[in-house]
Design goal:
CATH architecture of the largest domain: Up-down Bundle
Radius of gyration: 27 Å
Strand content: 5-15%
Structural class: mainly alpha
Largest sheet: 3 strands, antiparallel
CATH class of the largest domain: Mainly Alpha
Number of strands: 9
CATH topology of the largest domain: Fumarase C, Chain A, domain 2
Number of domains: 2
């Protein structure tokens, strides 16, 4: 793939998840070189932040010509101070790609060698050791991106071939040369939103999968309880103007088009043949079955807006100062501030938690025989009293959902002034993105448990030949992972396997 500095999310995913090789266009290289050459000349007799001044509250101190390069190395080394869990190699690679694309706009004044080395590291799957904790998301992701910059100067640690190793050793093995500081490579690499954005894009990718899975499971559960079709009908949902709701309802109709179990209300309740005083069948389904378009609709709308914001951010200059050669000017401002991403990650984790809550309620419906009046307690296919069915694993789903509910409190409004109050209001964007990723991981676990339960319910009903082709495909694929069981099993290996199946298919 040839990078042009106008990167779509679909292309971003191809590089991260499909390992497509990345190349740099001549136009891109020209922009970067032009930005560097302009800054080199423009900065000779002017005061420019981060070139010949200190950083943050120390910006009032002039830096002498002979110390300018050392200033950049000092910045990188001093801010390589992250702690906690390392980012996954996948997330770290996304951070690199996000930073590469931003720098490729030619608005940061960095030397072209930076983007060449970033390209090589991405293509060779060498990812920097970056920790979850450290950034406040205001002067960019300073701490996390310092760990990226540390690798680019040939120091620190990387992950290569699933091993954590010294950068120096891996560079020697792959014949890679570290970058050298020319003007402001330290600040140019560190001052931006690329960590929160890279993690955010990974979050969006998996959130899209979660919406698809939740939709499939919602369709399946409507099938096996023989729900009526009017709650996802075009006629009903077109009376509400929200696009997400209408899209979800449309996809439900498509998914269930060949189901032999879904019923039409007019065939059962809208004819004069029904003389029951107390109706045996439910007139309306429980909310977790009937309100799927109204619940998943806002989730989808939120996700689509988040994807737009993420794509805008990776194609934006989020540095300070911003170099614009066309204007013959260097502009000082706050493009590094991560509020856009922080807010979207908070919104995304809230809706994914709601999706998880929907799954947990659907699961409870299946497991509670007094509510569904169809299945044995806990969809227990063995001997009641002796066997437990899905009883034990429900606790896991409930506790995991509760954790996500707690984690859904907003990070966006948790600003704490720091940096001698220079950074007196911050975004906490990376924290928001990291917490969002935890909520997403939790969602996969709960949906895996719900899916196993649905498959067991189909087994109980022996309706494999009546369910829709989409549900049948899901049934067959999960049955290859989890056998039908009457006797109690140790469940955690199966939950983990189904979770991985959901993430990777």
């Amino acid at each position: 793939m040839v990078l042009t500095a106008n990167l779509k999310l679909e292309d971003f995913y191809k590089i991260i998840f499909d390992n497509e090789t990345l190349e740099l266009s001549e136009t891109l290289l020209s922009k970067v070189e032009n930005g560097f050459n302009f800054l080199e000349e423009f900065s000779k007799d002017k005061v420019i932040y981060g070139v010949n001044t200190g950083f943050g509250p120390m910006a009032q101190y002039r830096i002498s010509e002979e110390n300018r390069n050392q200033l950049q190395y000092n910045l990188i080394r001093s801010h390589s101070s992250g702690v906690g869990n390392p980012l996954s190699p996948q997330s770290a690679k996304a951070v690199m790609l996000a930073r590469l694309n931003t720098l490729s706009l030619g608005k940061s004044g960095i030397h072209p060698s930076v983007i060449f080395l970033l390209k090589e590291l991405i293509n060779k799957d060498v990812t920097p050791l970056i920790f979850e904790h450290g950034g406040v998301g205001a002067s960019g992701d300073l701490v996390q991106l310092a760990h990226l910059a540390l690798v680019l100067i040939g120091e620190g640690e990387v992950f290569y071939k699933n091993k954590r190793r010294n950068t120096k050793d891996v560079f020697a093995e792959l014949n890679l040369e570290p970058i050298k500081v020319h003007i402001r490579e330290g600040l140019g690499l560190m001052n931006g939103t690329s960590t929160m954005t890279g993690i955010g894009i990974i979050n969006a990718y998996y959130s899209r999968k979660l919406v698809d899975i939740s939709l499939k499971l919602s369709c399946a559960i409507n099938e096996i309880v023989k729900a009526y079709d009017d709650h996802f009908s075009e006629a009903l949902n077109s009376t509400k103007r929200h696009e997400g709701q209408q899209k979800i309802a449309s996809r439900m109709r498509e998914s269930l088009s060949d189901s032999k179990l879904i019923r039409k209300r007019e065939d059962h309740l809208y004819n004069k043949k029904n003389k029951e005083e107390i109706f045996k069948d439910k007139v309306q389904e429980y909310y977790s079955l009937r309100c799927v378009p109204q619940i998943l609709g806002p989730v989808l709308d939120t996700l689509e807006f988040t994807e737009k914001i993420l794509e805008d951010e990776i194609n934006s200059a989020n540095d300070n100062p911003i170099i614009i050669p066309e204007d013959q000017h260097v502009y000082h401002g706050g493009n590094f501030h991560g509020d856009y991403i922080s807010l979207e990650m908070d919104k995304l984790k809230i809706v994914i938690t709601k999706l998880t809550m929907l799954a947990e309620r659907q699961l409870n419906y299946l497991l509670n025989a007094k509510i569904n009046e169809i299945f044995p307690p806990f969809v227990n296919l063995g001997k009641l009293g002796l066997n437990f069915g899905m009883q034990g694993v429900q606790f896991t789903a409930t506790s995991t959902t509760a954790e996500s509910q707690m984690l859904s409190n907003p990070m966006y409004v948790h600003s704490i002034p720091n940096n001698n109050d220079n950074q007196d209001i911050v975004s906490m964007g990376t924290n928001s993105a990291v917490i969002c990723s935890k909520v997403i991981a939790n969602a996969f676990e709960v949906l895996a448990i719900e899916l196993i339960t649905i498959i067991q319910a189909i087994e109980f009903l022996e309706c494999q030949n009546e369910i829709s082709s989409n549900t049948k495909k899901l049934y067959d694929e999960v049955r290859a992972i989890v056998p039908a069981f009457k006797e109690d099993l140790v469940m955690y290996p199966f939950v983990e396997k189904v979770k991985e199946y959901l993430k990777n298919n």
